[in-house]
Design a protein that fits this description.
2 copies of one chain form a homodimer. Chain A is α+β, with helices and mostly antiparallel strands. A 7-stranded mixed sheet of chain A has the order 8-10-7-11-9-12-13, with helices on both faces. Chain A has a 4-stranded mixed sheet with strand order 3-6-4-5. Chain A has a two-stranded antiparallel sheet with strand order 1-2. The first copy, chain A, has 10 helices and 13 strands. Chain A is globular and about 65 Å long. Chain A is 34% helix and 25% strand. At the A-B interface, α1, β2, β3, β4 and β5 of A face α1, β2, β3, β4 and β5 of B.
Chain lengths: 343, 343
């Protein structure tokens, strides 16, 4: 940090909220009243309201030794937008609550909010409230996002049917490999003065970890092509975990082909450097914020024409279980080895 | 804790969520889809949606040495409902996010949720989502509450006009004195084996601190009498702080009479025992969750007939500032000395 810094206690809670929120414009006509009252007022008329929330805790979900606060703010917002898109909705408003220990200055928190503001601008979302508090240790970020969807148009996890095609956007495992890289460079840097990590050629996996995007574009493309997925979820905990969610909620099984899972070459390169199993990284890595969805077999041709969507398998009867089909035609049961905050 | 205990890591995040939320019924027709997808689906038709959120952190907002987890859960929900009532709305749904350190077992968290469930039952609110995580230290509770209000019927902080009457429900300062009592008994108990605090005759102030209620009944009575407040806020940070919010947002001043401020005799008794100024406790104590509101002078007779509502002063032009009129007719400027988490 450079320049003049302000201790949070000098501003007080209301002063801090005012300072943090004054630059957020209200852009949605659905936002009738924003920050500054007991509650925000939203109005949706004929639309349904979607609500999702995420709690991010320092030392569990992020490590400020290698995550810039502005990126953390951006990502904190994005992960919520991603949940709304995963319902086939449009994010409209967020509330942001933060708990801040005394080692943070107002300027630190402003960096965090600058990232949130950027995400709000890019995705057309209004900040409409929140809560601000001291914390005993570390930074706490709790964001709730409201979105809307035309009545009956939401896509749940529960609608997948046998023979449906399983699709995923983008590529998988990159955010996880980005995290491995950041952790390695951080541990190498420990104790070394003026250590400069070399990230050249690794920009993509770093960006996937530090500044992910929510796949609004995928939702738009699906609508343009007249495709409504039968089920959908965003990949936050890892492909295995999300596939099992869809199977459980839909009462179905699945087959996913190892050689169809989309993986970027930087991800593959890093997995080799780390001597890690690439498919394991892609299946269990998490934080990709891609969309995993199923479509009816009749949408096969339409899906093929959308760039950046990969068909990776199909839905089966429940009794067949969930399995990964390996390159040699063998089957490995899919188990949830996604990220678990309690381990 | 007695009986068999389960470590949270043995259940995992999804297991914990399932265990914690399975007993919450969906009771509102506005709740189309609850826990278990990327987002909840709410539908309000012609109503406006209200959203409020509160973040509660161990060591800042609560002390588990003297706050039972079930009461904490109840209160965590109530403080959010209170914000929705303070907008003249009806709470309908909540999301609950928690961060839990390893010293908590599943049974602990179930106690917390039992309190939340009780509050939801009594106030007719549905649990529709949330997030669950490990935390490095202590307990983190973040609740977001959605409510509805007929379009145009919300009551903001900004509508007070000169000559409006200032009203408050119930009595003030009791929750603050309850906290003083709990803190004293806890420090006396420290190091004394088998210490039994004597709380007899102090039940009211303890209940006000540990298990407050939201004033749904006041909103109902006002509607029955055909009164729509011109402004309203709930008393969470203290009367002084809330009065200043209304004055600032409405662009007005106020006069509040010291001898009109409603105070329970147990509160007065404890203030004497602690050698504290009673009016200071009532003005700045906070956590009363009463409703502070203003009504037009023409509603004077109607308000008088409502039991449990006290008229404590009136709104003035902004230039006159906000002041407390003392028993001897003097004026003391009102300053925000409400609770500040950052001090």
């Amino acid at each position: 940090m450079t320049g003049q810094e302000t201790e949070i206690k000098d501003l007080g809670e209301f002063g801090l909220i005012e300072r943090l929120t004054k630059e957020f414009p209200i852009t949605n006509k659905e936002t009738k009243l924003g920050v500054g009252d007991d509650a925000a007022v939203l109005t949706f008329g004929e639309k349904d309201v979607l609500v999702t929330t995420d709690l991010l805790l320092e030392g569990i979900h992020f490590d400020l030794r290698y995550v810039p606060l502005q990126h953390l703010g951006y990502k904190s917002a994005i992960v919520n937008f991603s949940d709304i898109y995963a319902m086939n909705g449009t994010p409209r408003q967020i509330t942001v609550s933060i708990g801040v220990s005394s080692r943070f200055t107002v300027e630190h928190i402003e960096q965090l909010y600058a990232g949130i503001r950027k995400a709000c601008e890019i995705y057309g979302v209004d900040l409409v409230g929140g809560d601000t508090s001291a914390s005993v240790t570390g930074l706490v970020i709790s964001i709730t996002c409201m979105g809307d969807v035309a009545s009956g148009e939401e896509v749940r996890r529960s609608g997948a049917k046998p023979t449906d095609i399983i699709c995923v956007s983008g590529d998988l495992g990159a955010a996880f490999m980005g995290l491995q890289l950041l952790e390695r460079e951080n541990s190498v840097a420990a104790g070394q003065k003026d250590f400069q990590p070399d990230f050249s050629g690794k920009e993509y996996i770093l960006e996937r970890q530090l500044k992910p995007e929510a796949r609004r574009d995928v939702i738009t493309k699906l609508k343009e092509k007249g495709i409504k997925p039968t089920s959908m979820i965003d990949v936050s905990d890892g492909l295995s975990s999300e596939l099992l969610h869809i199977c459980k909620e839909s009462g179905v099984g699945c087959r996913v082909y190892e050689d169809k899972i989309p993986i970027d070459y930087q991800t593959a390169f890093m997995a080799e450097e780390f001597n890690m199993n690439l498919v394991t990284a892609a299946m269990n890595g998490g934080e990709d914020y891609e969309l995993l969805f199923t479509v009816s077999l009749t949408d096969h041709e339409k899906i093929e024409k959308i760039e950046g969507i990969k068909m990776i398998g199909y839905i089966t009867e429940q009794g067949l279980g969930a399995a990964l089909v390996t390159r040699d035609g063998g089957e490995i049961p899919i188990k949830a080895q996604g990220w678990n905050a309690f381990n």
